[in-house]
Design goal:
Length: 537
């Protein structure tokens, strides 16, 4: 069994710091929620690198919200439910589509500058959206622009204290209630931060896989510390692989935004043939999971490691104006988006599941909240609709702050003492262990899965369990322990779900089975595995 705490801890022996609200993480969810909370509370933001290191920064496409007169919340609602393949919470989606526009207004008030055309927001369309409803900034640098605006505002706030280069090892809980966090400072010393509310905004789990569009900080920390703290973890078998990440020697798996296909780019196999008509009537704008699996099928049939995305029908001026970041990045590697076919392949991109929350972002542990990719609000179901992630973060960030207003202050510090006598250090270097884990996940728990492979992967992952008995002291050791926790949960959930749905595809069960599987798989460290029912309005 995975232990309650990653390290031996005697809370009474540690320095104590008190604040109103702790925000863990610095993506759009962390920054936005911290700013909203700081209007009435003292906030401590803890980030393991810096304010500018998060997945949000890499978000190119934009933020989905109903802005146009031709659009409506009903259309956005339907599109989200269709993409979510029967597992969305209809009440959570209802909240998202109706409160998204006000969240965008908040972002603008906080200094975000979205692209305009003729005095109106320049809206674009992405895969599985029926309307143009994606706001973007500087063409394809939406995430970077949001992070720029929000982090500047955060630094100016007298009510926000920022701790860069600090690592949250575990949450401190007692009797189903969260009292704050156990934090390691850059010098290795530990401190207990007590708070009335603790908000996880720690992002996703892309580093479970060797090929990912995520930065190296996306190590499933939030999911794993919440699991150890007794929160419910839901739907983690649903991992979204982005169909088109740059696949070129020497280049990182850089995202080639879905918006490129939204603007008319086509996919070709290495023989130059367009192939999406063989897989889906929406062609290149089919749901992401369909496009990603189609690409893998073409790669297998042509014995290639990539396919091409072809945007050469557009003029150089249009390409540069609409996708300046992607254009420049590709150019660094001698690839011209306006005249070359760009080699791409799928890469791990987004975790649909996470820490289960209610409609106010509260988890099953009192005073513990989750926001952004780390959470499972029910908005994304089995497959996230493009550009709904940034909207989800602001909508539920606002709701979390509303809920915090009614919390009474924490008056006591629980007596926590765990001494498992962890003395031995991990024998194999963590970097080797991590690579091994990533290879297992890629091979057995990737885009295409089957029972035999999942079982083999699960057994291989379990061989690493001794890490929890070791004396852990460094950030990368904690990160590996968190990755292993999440990898085991993801693999077990994928093994249990004997059907294909959304981002989860089983070759031995290739169709969806609503009669049996239209339900959530929920893990709880104390209560084991349970089923969650679908919330239908």
């Amino acid at each position: 069994m995975i232990p309650r705490y990653l390290v031996d801890v005697d809370l009474q022996a540690l320095p104590h710091i008190h604040t109103d609200v702790i925000v863990i993480g610095a993506g759009i969810a962390g920054l936005f929620t911290a700013l909203k909370a700081s209007e009435t509370h003292k906030v401590l933001m803890v980030t393991k690198k810096s304010l500018l290191d998060s997945n949000t920064r890499y978000a190119q496409g934009g933020i989905a919200a109903v802005i146009s007169d031709e659009d409506s919340p009903e259309y956005h609602y339907q599109d989200t439910l269709i993409a979510g393949a029967g597992l969305c919470s209809s009440s959570a989606v209802d909240v998202l589509v109706h409160e998204g526009p006000a969240g965008v207004t908040d972002l603008i008030r906080m200094g975000t500058e979205f692209d305009m055309e003729d005095g109106h927001f320049a809206l674009t369309k992405e895969g599985a959206h029926s309307q143009r409803r994606i706001l973007h900034a500087q063409g394809d640098a939406t995430g970077a622009e949001i992070v720029r605006a929000l982090s500047e505002k955060t630094k100016q706030s007298p009510n926000i204290e920022i701790w860069d280069d600090h690592f949250v090892i575990d949450l401190v809980t007692d009797d189903g209630e969260c009292f704050g966090a156990l934090v390691q400072r850059p010098d290795g010393h530990k401190v207990f931060v007590r708070a009335n509310a603790t908000i996880l905004c720690s992002g996703g789990a892309g580093q479970l896989y060797r090929y990912t569009t995520n930065p190296d900080i996306a190590t499933a920390d939030g999911i794993s510390i919440a699991y150890r703290a007794g929160a419910n973890i839901r739907d983690v078998e649903f991992v979204q692989f982005h169909p088109t990440s740059l696949c070129y020697p020497g280049a990182p798996r850089f995202l080639i935004s879905e918006a490129v296909r939204g603007e008319g780019a086509v996919l070709r196999n290495i023989n130059g043939e367009r192939f999406m008509e063989r897989y889906h009537p929406q062609l290149e704008l089919a749901p992401r999971d369909v496009v990603a699996r189609a690409i893998v099928s073409e790669m297998e049939q042509t014995k290639s490691t990539f396919v091409y995305i072809d945007f050469t029908h557009e003029s150089e001026a249009t390409v540069k104006h609409r996708f300046p970041t992607i254009y420049e990045f590709c150019l660094n590697f001698g690839l011209d988006l306006s005249s070359d076919w760009i080699p791409v392949a799928p890469a791990a991109h987004y975790m649909m599941g996470g820490v289960e929350t209610d409609l106010y972002g509260e988890t099953t542990v009192k005073r513990l909240f989750a926001c952004g990719e780390v959470s499972s609000t029910g908005v994304h179901g089995a497959n996230r609709l493009a550009s709904n992630s940034l909207s989800e973060a602001i909508v539920f960030g606002r709701r979390i702050v509303e809920r915090i207003e009614s919390l009474t202050p924490v008056e006591r510090t629980p007596e926590i003492r765990e001494d498992l006598g962890r003395h031995g250090n991990a024998i194999q270097p963590v970097v080797e262990k991590k690579l091994k884990l990533q290879k297992v996940m890629l091979r057995y728990v990737g885009l295409k899965r089957d029972g035999k492979g999942l079982q083999k992967g699960y057994e291989e992952l379990k061989r690493q369990l001794s890490i929890y008995d070791s004396h852990l002291a460094k950030r990368e050791e904690y990160e590996f322990a968190n990755l292993l926790t999440c990898a085991l949960l993801t693999t077990e959930a994928a093994l249990i779900r004997e059907e294909s749905r959304g981002g989860h595809y089983r070759e031995d069960f290739p169709v969806s089975n609503n009669a049996v599987w239209r339900k959530h798989i929920v893990f709880n460290r104390m209560n084991g595995i349970t089923e969650g029912r679908i919330d239908d309005v």
